[in-house]
Amino acid sequence: MTLPITDSILRGELRPNILKQSLEPKALELLIRNARKVSQKSQLLELEFAINNVLSDLVNTKDIYAEDKKTRDAAINARKNKISKNDAHYKFPSYEIVIDNVLTLPELNTPLLRFYNTIIDAEIFRTRQAILHMSRAVQDDAFVRSTLKALFKKIKFACQESQQWEEHQDVMSLIPIKLTHLYFTLLNTYGEVLQSYDTPEFEDDFMDFVYNWKGEYPSNDELAKYIEQSKVKKEIGNSITDIPDSYKPQELPGEGKANRPKDKADLFLEGVSAYNFLEMPKIKQLITPEKKTEKVHDLVMMMLENSGHACAMLEYLKFYDWIKKTQRIKFTKNDYDALCSKVIMGLENGSKAFHTVRMSLNSSNMNAEKYRAYAYMVQVDNEYVTLLNS
Fold first, then answer.
1. Measured between alpha carbons, how far is 353 from 203 in angstroms, rounded to an integer?
2. Are 114 and 221 in contact (CB under 8 A)?
3. SS3 77
4. Residues 6+ positions from 246 with CB-CB distance below 8 Å
5. What is the structure's pLDDT at 140?
6. Residues 6+ apart with CB under 8 A from 12
7. What pLDDT, on a 0 to 100 scale, did the predictor assign at position 209?
């Protein structure tokens, strides 16, 4: 388990000085704006896809996340095929103890600082989710312990390295604070797994851990917050399933159903299946023997971020023209609005609410700034091309 975003901020393309030099002002502004969408994702694969999409030109998160997923899937398949035996003493946590906002952050007083805050938060949350998924997939306490031990060393080193920067201390100060929160979230959550050590091979004292990178102890208020939060248990519940993410998004017809709960992309694809959505020229180009409809699923999941985004993507795909010319000759724009109101906005009974969204394709329309479909037209082109070439 690695921290590619943190590593890149410290040593790679995300270093503040390198980022400002390598990107034109408009490109940097777009990067900052796109990063805000990452914080809206809560499921592991959605979050990883969003991070890859935003940072693909700067950090190779895609291959790293794919390797983590390959490990999880291999473990699941080994257990399903009875190649490996379950650990009789395996302890999957039923709750998380989340440590957050304990140590005082610098004031986020610039867009660039907010950007770094957002992408580090995304990495922290992604790491927590990935370890939960990995723990359930592998079901081997020894493996989880070794993974956590290795990650703890990386966190400790990154905290210390960040303090060596003389420039950009506002950005660099975010790293040890947020990684300390991650460290003790994992330490408290996986306490039963880690306590098998008679003498821990890592620092398990909050005050000393902070002192080791900061050179001073946390304040009494910060310590009090930590003690209070370390007592709060948040149930994990069913958010991590027995096969956490070893599925292929929507299968091609006749290839069987994926053994997982349906997500919003699946529901959309079911809703438009009567119009042979998968046969549309641009959609067919996304379907490959290796990935099947995985790219289509990703495209739909991405566009369903909001109705304006979805409207622009369907316009780009020429969905209405496809239906009108090849599926339903008498299909009207009113019919289209009713269909999209249902499959995108979740509105039944022939609602035409989508009509207002569709009107925002025209930047001079009175509702243009409310739904901003027009503003997504360049973005959806880039999203499609990126998926097509991935």
1. 56
2. no
3. helix
4. 69, 72, 73, 76, 77, 137
5. 80
6. 18, 58, 59
7. 95
Q: How many angstroms separate the CA atoms of 193 and 149, rounded? A: 11
φ and ψ of 286, to 5 deg: -85, -15
- State which amino acid sits at residue 43: Q
- Under a CB-based contact definition with an 8 Å cutoff, are residues 188 and 99 in contact? yes
Residue 292, helix vs strand vs coil: strand
Distance CA 83, CA 253 (A): 31
Contacts for 283-289: CB closer than 8 Å, 24+ residues apart = 283/317, 285/388, 286/387, 286/388, 287/252
The span from the CA of 39 to the CA of 139, in Å, is: 29
pLDDT at res. 256: 39
Integer Cα distance of 185 and 151 in angstroms: 13
Angle between helices 264-271 and 333-343 (to 10 degrees): 150
Do you know the residue count of the chain? 390
- What's the pLDDT at 165? 82
What span, in angstroms and rounded, lies between the C-alpha atoms of 116 and 152? 22
pLDDT number for residue 260: 46
> Within the chain, which residues score under 70 in pLDDT?
79-90, 196-200, 237-262, 349-350
**Distance between CA 318 and CA 314 in Å, rounded?**
6
Q: Tell me the DSSP string of 344-374.
A: TT---TT--THHHHHHTTSTTSTTHHHH-TG
Instruction: Tell me the C-alpha to C-alpha distance, in Å, between residue 70 and each of 4, 65, 67, 138, 245.
Output: 17, 9, 5, 12, 10
pLDDT of residue 109: 92
Structure tokens at 212: 């080791």
Rounded Cα gap, residues 123 and 109, in angstroms: 21
Q: How many Å from the N-terminal Cα to the C-terminal Cα in the chain?
A: 23
Q: Could you tell me if 317 and 278 are in contact, meaning their C-beta atoms sit under 8 angstroms apart?
A: no
CB 11 within 8 A of CB 97: no
